[in-house]
Amino acid sequence: MELLFYISVGFVAYTYVGYPLIIVIWGTLFPRRVSKKYQHVPLSVVVAAKNEEINIKARIDNLLSQDYPRDMVQIIVVSDGSTDRTAELARSAGESVIVIETDGAVGKAAALNLGLQRATNEIVVFADARQRFSDNAFAELAAMFNDETVGAVSGELIIESGVGSEVGTGVGLYWQYEKLIRRMESASGSVVGATGSIYAIRRALYEPLAEHTVLDDFLIPMRIVLRGYRVVFVRSARAYDISSATTGEEFSRKVRTLAGNFQAVSMEKRLLHPRLNPVFFQFVSHKLARLVVPYFCITALVTSLILPGAFFNAAFAVQAIFYLLGILNQTPLGSSPIAKPLRVAWTFIVLNAAAVVGLWVYITRRDDVLWKKS
């Protein structure tokens, strides 16, 4: 039982501290440079939108106002069975926007497939309807494709705390930590996945997605990696979004993402093959390990409670206090001056609980949960 305790603690420590430290050292000491060159190459932008009449006009305006020649940008909006004025408002932007409407909801994956069928330019940018891009986003993304080894480019998502957000601080700190890992993975070779709200690919490398694919921003880039190309991260291409307003919204979003990770592995089994996957080490350490961390956390807690001795008593106390701090975030203390450590602990609990629920959602194939918009 002692061995089980040490293995559990070691696994959790490796996942959240050890691997990030390794990838930071790797990316710092042995960086792989990108031959970056600013040039105006034709771009196609695909936006999959479902009932986004509140956001679509501002989204298109933002794309058209990029510091990039407008005549070199093709914008394609796929209205996924929208029952509001999404398609109408997109058409009102003029002939520079191609609007595709589906007969009923087909899902984001199918919508992206339709968008790629209409795309005519060699570089395709994926954009969500809700966020906005920095003015230089197109230029920064396009510059990375000067390097022929680069098959996809991920931009940076800036999460701004919404008014009255319950999770802004915890999610913000976690996202900063996550972006550090992505930057260093990019420096060492390739990022494991991309930022869904802002990434671009070479159109020739796109493989049509299965209808119920959940994580296009993971499966598309990883298939590009499997073909021998790099997926790089560029901080200067930015998308801006607001953090989830409530813990419930954030939890639902993470459940969908983590269930999508299980799905992606089942759909693309080459990811599990160390000879076929050039970033096998990063994939296992960054993605797979986090899916099983909650079970090691539970094992560490239970074994430290059962094992005798002052050391194990102290280990149990430390864990219990940490989880208690997270729970206190759901009390009035969550808005007090000591709220920051409480929200960090609560974010850890939410993320790991979502991994457990995500597995259950995937196993039970509850597509209604996977496709539900927050």
Describe the structure.
The chain has 374 residues and is an alpha/beta fold. Helix 8 (247-267) crosses helix 11 and helix 10 packs across helix 11 (339-364). It has a domain at 32-249: Spore Coat Polysaccharide Biosynthesis Protein SpsA, Chain A, CATH 3.90.550.10. Helix content is 51%, strand content 15%. It has an 8-stranded mixed sheet with strand order 3-2-1-4-7-6-8-5, sandwiched between helices. The chain contains 12 helices and 8 strands. The two termini are 42 Å apart. It is globular and about 75 Å long.
Keywords:
374 residues; 12 helices; Spore Coat Polysaccharide Biosynthesis Protein SpsA, Chain A; 8-stranded mixed sheet; alpha/beta; 51% helix; 8 strands
Give the helices and strands, then pairings:
Layout: H1 2-29, E1 43-49, H2 56-64, E2 73-79, H3 86-91, E3 97-101, H4 108-118, E4 123-127, E5 132-133, H5 137-144, E6 150-160, H6 168-188, E7 198-202, H7 216-226, E8 230-242, H8 247-267, H9 280-306, H10 310-328, H11 339-364, H12 367-371
Parallel strand pairs: 1-2, 1-4, 2-3, 6-8
Antiparallel strand pairs: 4-7, 5-8, 6-7
In CATH, the topology of the domain at 32-249 is named Spore Coat Polysaccharide Biosynthesis Protein SpsA, Chain A
Low-confidence stretches: none
Identify the overall geometry. globular
Distance between the termini: 42 Å
Largest sheet data: 8 strands, mixed
State the order of secondary-structure elements, H for helix, E for strand.
HEHEHEHEEHEHEHEHHHHH
Total strands: the figure is 8
Structural class: alpha/beta
**Could you tell me the strand content as a percent range?**
5-15%
CATH architecture of the domain at 32-249: Alpha-Beta Complex
Count of alpha and pi helical runs: 12
Radius of gyration: 22 Å
Look at the structure and give the mean pLDDT. 90
User: What share of the residues lie within helices?
Assistant: 40-55%
- For the largest beta sheet, what order do the strands appear in spatially? 3-2-1-4-7-6-8-5
CATH superfamily of the domain at 32-249: Spore Coat Polysaccharide Biosynthesis Protein SpsA, Chain A
Q: Please give the CATH class of the domain at 32-249.
A: Alpha Beta
